[in-house]
């Protein structure tokens, strides 16, 4: 994704906010519990937890050759639902569509192409599937007041069984703008966590924040309001100096672990940091 300049002042603020926004006493909050690494080329664009607790990573090297030949040159933050892997693909700046690839537990891949609506950006930053398996949520780049909702390919009977056209069902309308969302994942039927690469500090006090989106109700294919708040500033720690980049986010419902990725600057960008969080009270 595009990178944004980070001033020295923003960097200092990021370290000052490293633990995130303070919670009121007794309120649940996400506490950092660990850090791991993955190679950026193979896994720096996103991650998803499998049923056995292992992690699936996506990076530029993950794009199959046949999809590259078709022009799909960027893969976003993936998701796994009912054993199916959902990948978000986008093409060049001249693209008029985006694509979701779904791989079945048996390894069969189907391609679902969404033709851009008027005013829709070509970016396809992530794919996340609702806990009931019926709806796929994705998002665009830049400043937005919405997340897009599609019927989940293969899992929702409204979609063709072997790939094809995918039309938007409706949208989640956010009560405040967000910027440069790199990934979202469902924590409950009505709550998502989203990783933002926004380093401006103009929308939220935190730099590159982890955001929470609370929905008015479960997704049902109709328009739904969403309430946004910032949870914490994602860590920016490295021996290298320069501009960091937020990437994917994943919530593992079986373990309760939340993970978020951060690519460090400069030569350190060859490896991506994966930070783990657990929700605690107090």
How many strands, what sense, and barrel or not for the largest sheet?
Answer: 8 strands, mixed
Distance between the termini: 36 Å
**Using only CA atoms, what is the Rg?**
18 Å
CATH topology: Neuraminidase
Overall CATH class: Mainly Beta
* Number of separate domains: 1
Helical run tally: 3
**Structural class designation:** mainly beta
Strand order of the largest sheet: 9-10-11-13-17-16-15-14
Mean pLDDT: 92
Give me the strand/helix succession: HEHEEHEEEEEEEEEEEEEEEEE
Runs in which pLDDT lies below 50 for 5 or more consecutive residues are: 1-23
Number of strands: 20
Helix content: under 10%
- Estimate what percentage of residues fall within beta strands: over 45%
Shape: globular
Q: In the CATH classification, which architecture applies?
A: 6 Propeller
Walk me through what this model shows.
The chain is mostly beta strands and 282 residues long. The chain has a single domain, classed as 6 Propeller (Neuraminidase), CATH 2.120.10. Helix content is 6%, strand content 46%. It has 3 helices and 20 strands. It has helices spanning 8-16, 40-43, 65-69, and strands at residues 28-39, 46-49, 55-58, 74-75, 79-81, 84-90, 97-103, 109-115, 128-129, 135-138, 143-151, 164-165, 170-179, 181-188, 191-196, 209-215, 224-233, 245-252, 257-263, 271-281. The strands form 4 sheets. It has an 8-stranded mixed beta sheet, with no helix packed on it. Strands 4, 5, 6, 7, 8 and 12 form a 6-stranded mixed beta sheet that branches. Strands 1-20-19-18 form a 4-stranded antiparallel beta sheet. A hairpin with a 5-residue loop joins β2 (46-49) and β3. The longest helix has 9 residues, at 8-16. The chain is globular, with a radius of gyration of 18 Å.
């Amino acid at each position: 994704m595009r990178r944004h300049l980070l001033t020295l002042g923003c960097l200092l603020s990021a370290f000052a906010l490293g633990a995130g926004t303070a919670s009121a006493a007794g309120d649940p909050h996400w506490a950092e519990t660990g850090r791991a690494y993955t190679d950026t080329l193979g896994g720096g664009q996103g991650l998803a937890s499998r049923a056995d607790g292992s992690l699936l990573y996506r990076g530029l090297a993950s794009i199959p050759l046949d999809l590259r030949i078709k022009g799909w040159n960027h893969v976003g933050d993936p998701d796994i639902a009912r054993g199916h892997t959902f990948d978000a693909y986008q093409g060049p700046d001249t693209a008029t569509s985006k694509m979701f690839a779904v791989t079945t537990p048996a390894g069969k891949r189907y391609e679902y192409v969404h033709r851009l609506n008027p005013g829709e950006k070509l970016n396809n930053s992530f794919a996340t599937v609702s806990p009931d398996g019926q709806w796929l949520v994705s998002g665009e780049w830049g400043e937005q007041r919405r997340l897009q909702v599609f019927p989940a390919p293969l899992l929702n009977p409204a979609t063709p069984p072997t790939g094809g056209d995918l039309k938007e069902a409706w949208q989640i309308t956010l009560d405040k703008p967000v910027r440069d969302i790199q990934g979202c994942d469902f924590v409950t039927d009505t709550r998502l966590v989203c990783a933002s690469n926004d380093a401006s500090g103009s929308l939220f006090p935190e730099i590159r924040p982890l955001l929470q989106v609370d929905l008015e109700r479960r997704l049902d294919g109709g328009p739904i309001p969403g309430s946004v708040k910032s949870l914490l500033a994602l860590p920016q720690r490295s021996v290298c100096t320069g501009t960091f980049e937020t990437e994917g986010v994943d919530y593992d419902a079986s373990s309760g672990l939340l993970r978020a990725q951060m690519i460090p600057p400069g030569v350190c960008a060859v490896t991506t940091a994966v930070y783990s969080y657990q929700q605690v009270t107090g």
